[in-house]
Structure formats: structure tokens, C-alpha cells
Amino acid sequence: MGVQVIPRTARAYIGCALLAAAAAVLPALRPGAATPWRAVLLLAALYAVCELPARCALVARALGPARPFPVTAGSFFPVLIATALLLPPAAAALTALPGAVLARVEQPPAGARRVWRAARLALAVWAASHAARLFHCHAALGLGPDTPDFPYALLPAGAAALALCLTLTALDGGIRATVEQLPPRAAWRGLLGRSLAPHAVHGLAGLMMAVLWRSPYGPVAALFVLLPVYISCWVFAQYHRERAAHQATIRALVQAVDIKDRYTRGHSERVGRASVLIARELGMAEDRLEVVRFAGILHDVGKLGVPTRVLRKDGPLTPEERRIIELHPEYGHEMVRGIGFLGEARTAILHHHERMDGSGYPYGLKGRRIPEYARVVAVADAFDAMTSTRSYSRARPVATALAELERCAGTQFDPRMVEALTRALAREGWQTEVTADEATAPLPVPRTPPPAGTPAAARAARTAQEHA
């Protein structure tokens, strides 16, 4: 990967953050400053050691890996919050610098990334330390034989965690706005909501570490807090790595289908989106929504086993071609049978062309014997097929497509799924798409679509669904 260009506004933003961080740490470096250097060095070394083995993505993955400055919250925050509770603001800001500079950088430009990370963490810890002092954190933590003042000690710890969270959110939104030229509302959208809960948990761990650090047992006892936190951090990072691998597998399969069948490019993603709309309207749990999205995205993966000439044919299929293409659900099921994380999505891939009256394929299942996910995907698939422009048919209006689905409800489609899609679209709307490759497949001459419920409308819907 080549060196990525940093916009001028982003360079200026990073420069301002660096100057502010320098101003924050300067009081600790002045001659005669009562900086507790022993504690600063110990905490700085501890934070650097925690950062070096692995960085754990705990909060935000709002930007993709190719972005110049992804917003991350991988820093080992319990140590930073403990530092904010134990040290004066300038000294606390110093402890964040070694770990921020030494931690691994995955994308270029490495130098600018390290400078930005060091500045943002120094400012965040400085703000957290000031917030903790507003609630007299030193008295609340206790010293030597004095016991901590619980539950009052929760206040400075909560204030420090909140200040850390707000500062990082503000800085991260700013870097998003300057790097990607986003409007402020888009740049900060979602950052705070995703950060609050993890920072609250880290605040509690930081409080426990600070209390043990100030106890008669000293810094060694504080290390026992870090072990379970570090293990949970590692487990969470492993989960995200596995999830990223799942997403990469699905993207690769969908891209292979899109390359082979240019007339369905983008169709899979839209079917996944429409399937989620239906499932959410039906009240499915969040974990099931993810599976039904996988089902919608991968429902046509079996087309990799269908001859290209059949997939790219303009117009209705012959009986022989129809028999060939009707094998794609079984091909798809065989392809994904060993992918365990898909779960029930595999049954939707196999049965999304079954019909409620039993006349579908591949097994002629009827009514409730058709898996629920398959009934969801069948409606989403037919809807997008009718509302997408292809080389042989122009996109039909959403209202016309919904009317055709309602006409076929009970015979071809589950009425509950059709009603759920209708309600969801009435609330959220739908942007119709051009699915055909416009560079190689000019659109047909515009014409008024036949009214829903007429034989012409049924034939048009049938043609679209044959290629869906």
C-alpha cells in the first residue's frame, strides 16, 4: 500500500492537537515541578507493556481499514484511568506517551498516526485527571491505612471515565471530519453511543487498580486487576477477528456471483437489506437479524454452478434452461454446507424458491414446512427483482411490486412476510436501483408498466423472478 495523502485540514488539526498536548504536559516538565516521577515512570512503563503485545479494538470500527486515521479505542484504558486518578493532570498526560508512540501501526503513514495517537491520548488523560480532581479523588481513594471512601469513590472514577470518553469522541469526530471532509453531524454520529458502555467498565477496573495502588500492598497488588481485564480484551479482539473473517468470506462469495452474473450486480446486498427489514418488522431478535442478512446476501451463491449463458440470457427462459437454473439452490446449499457460522441461513439458501402452495422448487415444500428464513428471503428476492432495472425489463414502481406480492400472497409468498415488508417500506422507504451493467447493457425503451394484477404484470414479475 502506498503512502496515503493527508488533507491539509487534517494536518492542521493534528498539529493543533499536538500543540495542545504539549501545553498539557509542560507543567510536569518545568524545573521545580513536584512531579511524582517514580509513579509516572512505573505507570508509563506498565501502559507501554500493555500496549505492545496486541491492540484490542473495543469500541469503534466506524471507518474501514483503508482509511487514513481509523477511529479506534484499542488503548488499554484501565491503566490510563488509574493514572488519571493517581497523578496530577500534567503528569498523567505524560504516562500515555510511551505506549502511544511504541504501539504497532497497521496502516501508513505510521509517523502521523503515532503523533495523532499520542496527542489524543495525552489530552484525554489530562482531561480525565482534571475531572477526577473535581470530586477530590485523592481523599476518596484513601492512602496507607485509610480505607477508600465507598461508594463516593465511584464519583471521581466515573467522572474520569466520562471525561476520557468525551474527549476521545470529540477528537475522533474531528479527525473524521477533516480526513474525509464529512459534515459535523456525520463525523460524530454514533461515536459517543458506542463508547460509553466500554469506558464505564474500564472506569471500574481503573478505580480498582488505583485503590490497590494506594493501598499498603502497593503497585504489585494493582497488577492483579489487569490480568482478567487483559484476558477479556484478548477474547473480545478474537471475536472481532473471527467476525471480520466471516464478513470476508461472504464478500468473496458475493463478488464471485456478481462477476459471473453482471445483471444481478448489487442484487444480493439489497435482498439482504430487504430481508432484515422484514425480519425486524416481525420482531426477530438481533442475533437472528444477522443470520437472515447472511441468508439474503448469499441466497444466489449457487448461481456459480449455473452456465453463464443461462444467467446472462435476456428475456424468459426455455423449459430446459429453467430446469438448469432451478438447480442453483441445491448448488448453493452444497457450497455453504460446511460454513458453520451461517446457521439457519443455509436452509434459506436451499428453500428460497419454495412456494406456499407447494409448487416451488427444489423439494416442493408447502406452507409452514418452508423454513421461516426462506419465506423471508423469497419475498425480499422477488421484491428486488421487480424493482430493479435489467437488460430485459425496466424497474417497476415500489407500489406496483408490493401490489404484485400481495396478489401472490398465500399461493407463492407467506402473507405475513408480505405484510411486514409493506409496513417496513411505508415507514423507511426504498431506493430502487439499476442492476444491469449500464456500460454493456443499455436500458430498454421506457414504457408504462402494466397495472398490478393483470396478466402482463404477472408475466413481467415471473420473468424477473426466474432470473432472481
TrEMBL record:
Which Pfam families does the record match to this protein?
A: HD_5
Does this UniProt record's set of keywords contain Cell cycle? no
Picking any one GO molecular function of the record gives: hydrolase activity
Q: Where is the composition biased (Pro residues)?
A: 443-453
Q: Which NCBIfam families match?
A: HDIG (TIGR00277)
Task: Point to the regions of Low complexity compositional bias.
Answer: 454-468
For the region Disordered, what residue ranges are annotated? 434-468
Task: Print the keywords alphabetically.
Answer: Hydrolase, Membrane, Transmembrane, Transmembrane helix
Give all residue intervals belonging to the HD-GYP domain.
242-437
The protein here is known as Metal-dependent phosphohydrolase
| TM spans (from-to) | 12-29, 76-103, 115-132, 152-171, 191-213, 219-237
> Entry's SMART domains?
HDc
Q: Does the keyword Transit peptide apply?
A: no
Return the CDD domains for the record.
HDc
Domain (HD): residue spans on this chain: 264-386
Species classification: Bacteria, Bacillati, Actinomycetota, Actinomycetes, Kitasatosporales
